[in-house]
Every structure is written in structure tokens, then in C-alpha cells.
Amino acid sequence: MNHLLREHAPISDAGWQALDEEARDRLSVALGARKLIDFSGPLGWKYSATNLGRVSAIADSPATGIVAARREVLPLTEVRAAFTVSRNELLDNDRGAADMDLQSLDEAALRIASAENVAVFHGWEDAGITGITGATPHPPVPRVEDFGDYPKRVAKAVSVLLKSGISGPFGLALGPGHYTAVIEAAERGGYLLSDHLRKILDGPIVWAPGVKGAVVMSLRGGDFLFESGQDLSIGYSHHDAEDVHLYLEQSFSFRVATAEAAIHLTSSEAIPLNR
């Protein structure tokens, strides 16, 4: 038995399999940040902090002639999203029903994936996480409302990264609104905008719920470091006569190793590219 307490839940092996598969399917789509950054782990629930490789001096020591320093670490953050599943739905699944209602799980998966994306791309101050858009020294590239002009913004972002000595290939993380507009848009002659962007980037376009605007970033590796303690898992809280109360949970840290390896494309109004 571990801290997830799955053994205490009134859920059959088939029920757990259905829940785990549904969570995996939903999370694999929504965890956009993981498709573009370096993922390390999972290192286990007991793993508590990321080594930053730095020290801070300790002014006072317990004895004369002693010099001391404290190792600096980034504590992992625990994140949980609760959901419920009807006990009747679980029983129907055991009988062979193929359409179990897992809307609450789907919503929890989107919430926790969005929280992870926000932490990676925009930071989480209370958790000690500086996000990619907060760390980059590059001024953001504004966009126009006409998405047909979007390739100019992405090309400018790639150019800024290359001039800073950052090599490709590059990836593009898009918030839901931007993603829909880009995927649906076609340029003159019917050429898909998304295909044009992929050629500029030489890399993928990723749907990342929680992202504000978009982020162009290098995929060369070593620049954006995500460390997983416990990877996303379903745990048991309690149950009553009607529902089983469960949750999705993970622990993680994130740090930016090379701040200049990404640039933010904002959602502001049109501003000339040379500004």
C-alpha cells in the first residue's frame, strides 16, 4: 500500500484500468509543456527537492575557523485535482459498458495539465517557479489580429533566438485560442498556415491550455528542465453511497537553465515589428 490508498477504493481492477486509460488519454493531449522541455523522472513520492548546484554562505558558525555554506535546492510542489466517479457507472463498466461517464475525470485532467503548463510557461511565484516567459530577456513579439500575418511573428522570434546563439529546431506552444486560429487558417493560395509555421520552426506546434499567447522555444535540449517526483497518478480519497471521490496528483519542479532560449508572442494589439 502507498499514499494513494487505491486498495481502499470500491473499484475493481477493470475499473482502475478504465480510469487510468482515460486519464492517460486526456493528459497526453493537454500536457503541452512536456512535449517541448526536458523531462526527468519520475523520481518517486519521497523525492522532495531539486539540487540547484549552488550554495549560499552562512555568516555564523558554531566554532572558530569554520567556513560554512548552505546547499540551495528548489522544493518540489505537490499538485492535486479532485474528481468523482459514480459507483453505478463503475458497476456498469464491470458489466461491460463501453460508455462510462468520466466527465469529472476529464475536467480534472484538463485543470491539472493547465496548471502545469502555466507553471512552466508563466511561472508560479508561491511555488518558487520562474516560468519561461518571465525568465527570457527578449522583449515579447506582439501579434496582429489577422492570423494570416502570424508567420512574420514566428519568423521574427526565430530570428531573435538565432541571433542570440540559440540553435534549433524550434517548437511553438500555443494557447487554445491561438491554436484553433492557426490550425483553421489558410494563406493565399490555400496553403495551410500551420504547415508554413512548421517549416519556419523546423519543429512542432503544440496545443498548451493555460498558455497566454504563444511561446517559441529551442528544442536543442538542456534549456528547460522539468523534474518529476511522483508523476501524475490517480489516488483515492473516500466514498459514499453514490460516488467515489478520487484525485489526480503529482509533484514536480521546473527551472530555466538558458533564459534566452525562448521568446514570448503576446496577445496584444498590432504593433510594428520594428518596435
Automatic annotation (TrEMBL):
Taxonomic classification: Bacteria, Bacillati, Actinomycetota, Actinomycetes, Micrococcales
Protein name: Type 1 encapsulin shell protein
Predominant location category: other
NCBIfam families the record matches: encap_f1
Location in the cell: Encapsulin nanocompartment
Domain of life the protein comes from: Bacteria
InterPro entries tied to this protein: ENCAP, Encapsulin_nc
Any one Gene Ontology cellular component term annotated for this protein: encapsulin nanocompartment
Residues that span the membrane, as ranges: none
Organism for this UniProt entry: Arthrobacter terrae
Pfam families: Linocin_M18
Keyword hit for Glycoprotein: no
Acyltransferase recorded as keyword: no
Homology family: Belongs to the encapsulin family. Family 1 subfamily.
Keyword tags: Encapsulin nanocompartment
